[in-house]
């Protein structure tokens, strides 16, 4: 073999660094795909249903879940291969993003439920008041 060839330890060290970079890159992409705070907070809607529909749209995690999954796959592979000298920071970052994605998805579902309930409630209230007006006549 020539002097330019690498031994197994060097190759493993190089691959471990690449795996860490893969995890960090995927986590960054996941964070970039999360909704912006202002998009969740601010609205231009004229009524409650518009607010809810806008909020539901703003609470879309987009491709964040896919990037999180990529980060977790690379992390698991690296951890099983014992490629990371210090994996705690990566594991903590993955858990943080995973919790945030879960919270956003839960809020999205709750807003969706409310967005479908509010029009029904409005209709029921209109009917109740119409019945009340008829009884008064």
UniProtKB/TrEMBL annotation:
<feature type="coiled-coil region">
    <location>
        <begin position="80"/>
        <end position="110"/>
    </location>
</feature>
<feature type="region of interest" description="Disordered">
    <location>
        <begin position="115"/>
        <end position="137"/>
    </location>
</feature>
<feature type="compositionally biased region" description="Acidic residues">
    <location>
        <begin position="1"/>
        <end position="12"/>
    </location>
</feature>
<protein>
    <submittedName>
        <fullName>DUF5790 family protein</fullName>
    </submittedName>
</protein>
<keyword id="KW-0175">Coiled coil</keyword>
<dbReference type="Pfam" id="PF19103">
    <property type="entry name" value="DUF5790"/>
</dbReference>
<feature type="region of interest" description="Disordered">
    <location>
        <begin position="1"/>
        <end position="22"/>
    </location>
</feature>
<dbReference type="InterPro" id="IPR043808">
    <property type="entry name" value="DUF5790"/>
</dbReference>
